[in-house]
Amino acid sequence: MTRFSLALSQLLSSFKKSSRDDGSEFLKLSSDSPQWMSECVMAAHDGELPNDSRYQLIRDCLEALSDEGVESQEEALDASRDISLDLLPISNGGILQWFSDMPCRLGDCDEALSQERVSELTTYEILSEGFRLAAEEVISSLADSLEDAADSLFDPDTDCELLLSDSHGIYIPKLWCDELSSEEEAERLSVSWDSVLVCQSGPDEEFYWDAWQEILDSAEWEEDGVEWRLHQSGDLWRVRADVEIPEGF
User: Are the C-beta atoms of 173 and 215 separated by less than 8 Å?
Assistant: First the structure.
């Protein structure tokens, strides 16, 4: 799975159904969705205020991209024409409802005409191409946003490595620091040698946990062209320094 497809999968899974007081259902992002997802969805509204039919189209586009196995921005753009045709409402009522939801969408029809996308000057053809243009623009916007988000996404398969399990308990700081034998090694990892010595003394040392916290906050090093840092949540991990660690990891 590429980082682009990972971002696509995460965004798609964040869409949830909810109900209003009158019983009508609508789509929304889950309450714990990261900020980049909200920005992605808002950009795909193309200037419209948040509305149900646009949320539905965004989700439908994401689902279609996922079903197509799209793994890059380029693949998403290449698939947009076929997907827009697949998403075109089957009934006349469906396509009329799309435009009646937001009258400003008639501008998509004008744009379709100006791009000479309309082969027959019939109302249905004009509305159909207007809808398809809107869908393709949604896919283009999503592709841009997913590409931007992909680099900072956390992939547990590639972006972390378990160093010490929590079965080592209070001895994790000592065990990690025992691997360092010189001030030069500590400097390479951007940690204080004095803090390393304190941790090597063991958990009975008065400033053991203070020293360890300092190490966790400052440790950062490069290996094979990748910047790494320490992260402890029970287990001790090394994680890529350029990704955001999700809550609960």
Answer: yes
Coil, helix or strand at residue 124: helix
Pair 7, 117 in one domain: yes
3-state SS assignment for residue 51: coil
Query: Are β-strands 25-29 and 160-164 bridged in parallel, bridged antiparallel, or unpaired?
Result: unpaired
- With tokens 């193309």, the residue in question is 46
Q: Apex CA 62: angle with CA 70 and CA 8, to 5°?
A: 60
Range of the structural domain that residue 57 is part of: 3-150
SS3 24: coil
What is the reported pLDDT for 224? 85
Cα-to-chain-centroid distance, residue 32: 12
Q: Which residue, among 161, 175, 182, 165, has the nearest Cα to 224 in the 3D structure? A: 161
Q: 198-228 burial string, b = 16+ CB within 10 Å, else e?
A: bbbeeeebeebeebbebbbeebebeeeeeeb
Task: Based on the fold, state whether residues 42 and 141 are members of the same structural domain.
Answer: yes
pTM of the model: 0.74
Tens of pLDDT, residue by residue over 83-114, are 999 999 999 999 999 999 999 999 999 999 99
DSSP state of 234: S
Tell me how many helices (H) and strands (E) the chain has. Answer: 11, 6
**Rounded-to-integer distance, Cα 81 and Cα 103, Å:** 23
Count up the domains in the chain and report the number: 2
Instruction: Report, as an integer, the average pLDDT of 75-84.
Output: 97
pLDDT band at 136 (very low <50, low <70, confident <90, very high): very high
Where a domain ends, among 106, 129, 150?
150
Q: Are 83 and 139 in contact (CB under 8 A)?
A: yes
In a domain, 248, yes or no: no
In this structure, what token pair is assigned to residue 227? Answer: 């910047």
